[in-house]
Design brief:
The complex is a heterodimer of chains A (236) and B (645).
Chain A lengths: L1 H10 L4 H9 L13 E9 L9 E10 L2 E11 L10 H4 L4 H6 L3 H12 L3 E4 L2 H16 L7 E3 H15 L12 H7 L10 H20 L6 H6 L8
Parallel strand pairs in A: 1-4, 4-5
Antiparallel strand pairs in A: 1-2, 2-3
Chain B lengths: L14 H8 L9 H9 L2 E5 L4 E3 L8 E7 L2 E6 L5 E7 L4 E2 L1 H6 L6 E4 L3 E7 H10 L1 H20 L16 H4 L2 H4 L6 E3 L4 H11 L3 E6 L2 E10 H9 L19 E3 L4 H11 L3 E6 L2 E7 H7 L4 H9 L4 H9 L1 H10 L4 H27 L6 E5 L1 H4 L11 E5 L5 H24 L17 E3 H13 L3 H6 L7 E5 L1 H17 L2 H12 L22 E2 H19 L7 H10 L5 H27 L7 E2 L6 H24 L4
């Protein structure tokens, strides 16, 4: 019975919003300069880190156009989890159970989010975790996964810190933490309050702008160059 | 499609921009809804340190930049590539407003000096705001006119000294019509030049208006002293030529109701010094840049004149109290700290000169030549406000025992009276008793030479530090040759015994640059001034000490720190680059110190050297940090020149 249902689900057609999403990236070209791409910097708040068991309870995102953060277009939505009982994490996120009970379910929020993303690349801090959850959710409610290419600010931060410490031996007060908050402090970025999906997305967007421009060292990188940056690239 | 959802009670409009605008002039005057609306129109951009944002005459302004984090400098690059720094701007400041309002290209080069995040407000939205919100329009217009004056007056970095008296505001309240005292003096265009010159002399004026020969009310030109000099005398023009040949035409005019500030702006903008004043269509007089300059009270020149004219001690006492007012106006006019402290020294010197002249009249002439020595900061011409007296007397060696006794009692009396008057003038006593009243420091030349010999040839490190201010001596009054001889003696002795310099250098290097100030760690670790920066001892003393040691080492006679650095650079002992970095760093700190002390005085407290980091802007801190970085470089150089043995 169970294998049978699964096989049916596999053959079900993806939701139209995912079909549109897939079409946008069929001929994806990596050779354009970064300002020509749109980015959506996103953050999800979760009930926990186990993607099989835990659920998304909020999604925050901001759009970056021409390598500038567009404050007019932000996305912030709470999501009603299927299981409201086991989510201790909500206390960290300062979201009350009441707010979650009133929130729309994933089935409503996710298509809106996919639409919001449009042809943008998705940027996140440890973006892999967000994508695991988003794709897991997408498989459940939209019968497919997102096609947007991703950029992890954590990886960029590591590249930047390596390049910096190699070129500046005197720099001794840098920490080894790659936590969003610690990095923001280390790089002297304006600070937002953590554990709110939109604020974290904004914080990540600031970090993204900072890193992309710092890594470019005055030059505009293409997307491919950004992907191909290697640790200690400047020494090669 | 609107993605900003509000049904969860969680508005997703950008809270942090709203907060930022609410705390930023002039947007803080707007109501909350309007601020939220503005915030939604903003974008955020990031400019790494060293990014060129605007290029004068090239960049079209598509949006206003509001600095959220970081800082920029604005500057002008002339045809020869020389760069003149205009201004630093930090968090909460904006860039590009003037250009947008005037619909012109950028008029300055602007570059980030730190990693900088800006909110970008589109040009159109900003223009609509200016249009609809008088508060905003007013703010920018006011800040432009202030800025223009501010640059015109020169290099004022921070305009943070409060205006105390209404006198300073004359420029903004007195009109051109109020100023005209006489006239208008005019002459027909057919009159000859010599006649014009005679009339100018007769009326004691520097200019004459020129009228149509048929209609005295029809003013067609103006001639000035300068025209007589350049177009007649220098050019060899006949004095009998008609005035019309040399007049400037047409005459620039201002309305008699224009405030002097506008008049000054117009003069500065056109580079002219005379304007005709018009009332009801008639020219009623001429206003000159000199007339406007006279409006500014507290001019150092007037104080100087008052001091040298004093005939009584009692008259001198209140005059020294006026020095802070002079300093305030100099700071407001953009004077550099180095010039201001030199000005203070000149004024103090004149008070001393006047006072000792009067004293000599009172107790009779001295039995032998003498020189009143100024030591320490006075010796270096680096006093700010009332600092302790540090002085001494050196007199010519008496020729016999009788003269020796006579000299000793005369100078003891002179010193006693002088110090007393100085205290009444408001110069506090030196707690270390380094004053002419101390018999140790009121001695004939040979004794002084012996002092220096001892300090130099057989240095006791502790004593040496206590007497380091003696090495900065200069002549304050009297026979300067005594001070010169002593200086030459010191230089020749130093050549033979450099070892004492090692002690002085080592002491310089012992103090670490207070960089921890910027890590929000403790500055002064305990006591009343906990967490404050002692700008004198932590910031300035390292530069003073460096200048002193290096000047002694290379036989530089200057005592002023900036002058010492300059000579050291000219003679190739330090690089030009280090010289400029060190002078800037030193002057910046002097500037902060002056402003801090002035503020203290205005609060009715005694001036001190403890700066609270909370008083500083991010930009001040950044500049201070650079200044402290220079200290490390000075230490590095000293360590090279004076290696530890």
């Amino acid at each position: 019975m169970i294998p049978f249902l699964k096989s049916i689900k596999l053959f079900r057609k993806p939701h139209p919003v995912l079909e549109r999403n897939r079409q946008l990236f069929v001929d994806f070209n990596q050779s354009r300069p970064l300002p020509e791409y749109n980015f959506v910097v996103c953050d999800t708040e979760l009930t926990g880190l186990n993607w099989r068991r835990d659920e998304i309870i909020s999604i925050g995102a901001v759009r970056v156009v021409d390598l500038q953060i567009e404050l007019a277009a932000t996305f912030h939505q709470y999501v009603r989890p299927r299981n409201l009982n086991h989510n201790q994490a909500t206390f960290i996120h300062r979201i009350t159970p009441e707010q979650l009970r009133e929130a729309p379910p994933l089935e409503e929020v996710l298509p809106e989010f996919v639409d919001f993303c449009g042809d943008s690349l998705l940027v996140g801090h440890f973006v892999g975790i967000d994508m695991d959850f988003l794709n897991n959710a997408a498989r459940k409610v939209l019968n497919g996964t997102l096609s947007n290419p991703c950029i992890d600010t954590m990886r960029l931060a590591r590249l930047y810190k390596e390049a910096r410490s190699a070129s500046d031996y005197g720099h001794c007060d840098q920490s080894n933490s790659y936590n969003l908050d610690d990095l923001s402090q280390e790089f002297g970025l304006p600070r937002f309050k953590p554990h709110d999906a939109l604020e974290d997305a904004l914080q990540t967007a600031y970090l993204f702008l900072f890193l992309v421009k710092k890594l470019g060292r005055g030059e505009v990188l293409t997307l491919r160059q950004l992907y191909q940056l290697k640790p200690l690239w400047h020494l090669l | 499609m609107v993605f900003s959802k509000k049904q969860n009670g969680q508005a997703s409009s950008p809270e942090m921009v709203v907060k930022f605008l609410e705390n930023t002039m002039p947007f803080n005057e707007l109501d909350h809804e309007m601020i939220r609306d503005l915030a939604r129109h903003c974008r955020v951009d990031f400019f790494p340190k060293g990014t060129r944002l605007l290029t004068a005459g090239e960049t079209e302004l598509t949006h206003l930049y509001l600095i959220q984090r970081g800082g920029v400098k604005s500057f002008i690059t002339d045809d020869e590539g020389d760069v003149t720094l205009k201004d630093y701007r930090g968090e909460g400041s904006c860039i590009g407003a003037l250009g947008i309002i005037r619909g012109a290209l950028a008029n300055l080069d602007v570059e980030t000096v730190e990693d900088t995040f800006c909110f970008l407000l589109p040009r159109q939205i900003f223009l609509e705001l200016i249009d609809q919100q008088p508060v905003v329009a007013q703010y920018y217009l006011k800040s432009f006119s202030e800025k223009i004056v501010h640059t015109a007056y020169s290099e004022l970095r921070h305009h943070r000294v409060s205006r105390r008296s209404s006198e300073d505001l004359y420029l903004f309240s007195v009109t051109a019509g109020d100023i005209i005292k006489q006239g208008p003096w005019k002459i027909s265009s057919t009159a000859i030049i010599q006649q014009a010159a005679a009339e100018m002399t007769g009326h004691r004026v520097g200019s004459l208006l020129v009228h149509d020969p048929d209609d005295p009310e029809n003013i067609i030109g103006i001639i000035t002293d300068k025209d007589l000099r350049t177009k007649v005398v220098a050019a060899g023009l006949a004095y009998s030529a008609p005035v019309s040949e040399i007049m400037n035409s047409p005459v620039r005019r201002v309305l008699s109701k224009a405030i002097c500030f506008e008049v000054l702006l117009q003069m500065m903008a056109m580079g002219i010094h005379h304007l005709a004043v018009e009332q009801g269509g008639r020219i009623v007089g001429v206003i000159t840049s000199h007339d406007i300059m006279l409006l500014q009270g507290h001019s150092p020149y007037y104080l100087f004149k008052e001091i040298v004219a004093q005939q009584e001690f009692g008259g001198l006492y209140p005059l020294s109290e006026k020095i802070p007012d002079v300093v305030r106006s100099l700071i407001q006019e953009g004077g550099k700290a180095g010039n201001i402290t030199r000005m203070i020294a000149v004024l103090n010197d004149h008070i001393l000169d006047r006072m000792l002249t009067l004293l000599e009249q009172e107790i009779g002439p001295p039995p032998v030549r003498y020189c009143w020595l100024l030591l320490g900061s006075e010796g270096r011409r680096e006093q700010t406000f009332k600092t302790d007296q540090d002085n001494a007397i050196v007199y010519a060696d008496p020729k016999d025992e009788a003269q020796r006794i006579e000299a000793r009692s005369y100078f003891a009396e002179l010193a006693r009276l002088a110090i007393d008057h100085l205290v009444k003038c408001g110069y506090p006593l030196c707690p270390g008793e380094i004053m002419a009243t101390n018999p140790l420091w009121c001695q004939p030349y040979s004794v002084w030479a012996g002092y220096f010999d001892k300090w130099i040839a057989a240095p006791d490190p502790k004593e040496l530090l206590n007497v380091s201010i003696f090495f900065d001596f200069r002549c304050g009054y009297g026979d300067a040759t005594l001070a010169d001889d002593l200086r030459n003696h010191l230089i020749s002795q130093t050549r033979r015994h450099e070892i004492y310099l090692l002690h002085l250098a080592r002491d310089c290097m012992a103090s670490r640059a207070p960089l921890s100030f910027f890590k929000n760690i403790i500055v002064e670790k305990n006591g009343e001034h906990k967490n404050k920066l002692d700008v004198k001892h932590q910031g300035l003393t390292p530069f003073v000490g460096f200048g002193r040691v290096m000047a002694l080492k290379y036989g530089v006679k200057e005592t002023n720190t900036l002058a010492r650095l300059q000579v050291l650079s000219e003679e190739g002992h330090i690089s030009q680059e280090l010289w400029s970095a060190a002078s800037n760093a030193y002057e910046l700190q002097m500037h902060l110190r002056l402003i801090h002390q002035l503020r203290k005085i205005e609060q009715g407290e005694p001036p001190d050297n403890y700066i609270d980091p909370a008083q500083l802007t991010e930009l001040d801190k950044r500049m201070l940090k650079e200044a402290f970085g220079v200290i490390e470089r000075l230490h590095g150089l000293l360590a090279n020149i004076f290696p530890l043995m």
